[in-house]
Amino acid sequence: MRNLKTMLYIPGNREEFFEKVERFKPGAVIIDLEDAVPIDSKRATRDRLAELIPKLPFECWVRVNGEDEYLWDDIRKLIIPELAGFILPKAQYPEQVKEIGTYINAIEDERGIKRGKIELMLLLETALGLYNCYDLVKASPRVATVIFACAEAGDLQADLGCAWSSDGPELAYGHGKLIVDARAAGCKYVIEGPYAKIKDMEGLIEDTKRSKRMGYTGRTVIYPGHIEVCEEIYSLTAEERQHNEELIKAFDEAISKGLAAVQFKGKLLDYAMYKKAKRELGIEED
Q1: N or C: which end of the chain has fewer CB within 10 A?
Q2: CA distance 152 to 230
Q3: pLDDT tens, 150-185?
């Protein structure tokens, strides 16, 4: 089953970091061509990545530049079979997402890559992007999910003009809206943004637990030391896995007897609980 519980950002121009990543075991990496790369190095870095990505032993995404000056060339030069997809920064306009999807279609066809292989994740960093979340996801079948840009002192906080705190009430509406919109649009997983205080492990744990309770299934990470903690929190515990397995077994037995409800550990099970347990175990519905 695909693991996107942690997605580690790596500066695209720091090749020495690529050799160290595997030992931290992130679910995937996001190679950053945007904020982490100086302007005068962006094109050379992009061209080098087209050579490097096929050699890397982990799932790779690339955060492209949002400006037209770089965006289209970033996409065109990096459409290769070994790439999982692109992270689109400051996604705001469904029309642009649709246009990017169509553009990728043509290049995949031209290069003999299965259409739809290259996915999109949309980074929601503005009030307008958050407002348009559902329509952004629906704009292209390539959109796998969205990422909530919740980092302290980040673009979303600046655009909203709000404060930031560890318990997160200032961004609570945004967190909730993104979950509702993404799930309503059909996203199978939803990604939380990074926790910016790299040495605050207690704060990271509480923030990630809150994120999981809200329905987020993973998060982006800017510090390798956060990976192990986040992987553990977003994963099922042994007890949760056993509970789900027993629940599914009990409900399957009820179904075989022509029933659609059954008592299980003091609760009345129904199809909603059954489907939730299967989803948490990564069992695809028939």
Answers
A1: C
A2: 18
A3: 888 888 989 999 988 877 789 999 999 999 999 999
